[in-house]
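Problem 12. The chain below contains 179 residues. Write out its predicted structure in token notation.
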Amino acid sequence: MANPKASPPAVTSRSGWQGGLRRTLMFAVLWWLLTGGAPDSWLIGLPVVLAASWLSMTLWTGPALSLVGVLRFVPWFMWQSLAGATDVAIRAFRPRMPLAPGLVRHRLRLPEGVARVSLANVVSMQPGTLSADLVDDELLIHTLDAGNDMHAMVLDLEPRIAAVFGLELEPPAATGTPP
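Solution.
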């Protein structure tokens, strides 16, 4: 007969040797990119890559990153960054461009923690937006143009951030009103 007070079986995590190998590979590729592939940089790079891998395994308590999610997110983010830079340039050269600043509250579907904070940070990098507050499951967004649909922007961004962290999202509420 099983002991009812026995602890539940351990859940296998992706932070074992395979996770360590993935992180080491990721940091090695990052080092290679930052140094332009210079072979002599590995004298310093190898200890740095190993230390970064060990520290990330030791200190990171959030959900594991999905390589596929990250690879899909990066091109989208680069495109959005270009759009944001273009928007700022247009506003700089057309100072009479109308502004209609406002605040928008959006109920988030992402779980608490690093995924929500990442979403808030990415929202701040979008053209004309700034994450003003993140309380419980609501994000307060300051926008330069309240005519833009901030809810649609966040609804598009949430699944992208969820994919980066390998998370599943509930579908948006079908109430007919913004989340």
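Discussion. The two ends are 49 Å apart (CA to CA). Students who got a different answer should revisit the alignment rule from Section 12.3.
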